[in-house]
């Protein structure tokens, strides 16, 4: 069985220094985070990517409810992401 951590690092090393843009789709992450009880630290993710790549942008896409508590909560999340440089 292959060592996936080693393979992961080999791929990152091959791509080191490349210029990249990152797209993050909240819909692909929201429910799995909720299901397994994880909360992703996006600043750590950003810093991890910066160790390997020349990042020109990171875009975070999320649905925005029209009103109510869900809208308020998503606005807080959006503001926090913007503070660490995700748009």
Describe this structure in words.
Helices cover 53% and strands 17% of the residues. The chain is an alpha+beta fold and 87 residues long. The protein has one domain (18-83). A two-stranded parallel ribbon has the order 1-2. The termini are far apart.
**Strand content bin:** 15-25%
Mean residue pLDDT: 90
H-E string:
HEHHEH
How many helices? The count is 4
For the record, give the distance between the C-alpha atoms at the N and C termini, rounded to a whole number.
39 Å
Instruction: Tell me how many strands there are.
Output: 2
Give the count of structural domains.
Answer: 1
General shape: globular
Low-confidence stretches: none
Can you list the strand order of the major beta sheet? 1-2
The rounded Rg comes to 15 Å
Taking the sheet with the most strands, its summary is: 2 strands, parallel
Estimated structural class: alpha+beta
Q: How helix-rich are the residues, as a percent range?
A: 40-55%
């Amino acid at each position: 069985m292959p060592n996936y951590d080693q393979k992961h690092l080999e791929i990152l090393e091959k791509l080191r220094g490349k210029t990249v843009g990152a797209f993050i789709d909240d819909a692909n992450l929201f429910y799995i985070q909720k299901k397994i009880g994880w909360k992703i630290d996006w600043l750590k993710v950003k810093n991890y990517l910066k160790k390997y790549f020349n990042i020109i942008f990171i875009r975070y896409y999320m649905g925005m409810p029209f009103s109510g508590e869900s809208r308020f909560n998503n606005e807080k999340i959006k503001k926090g992401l913007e503070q660490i440089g995700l748009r």
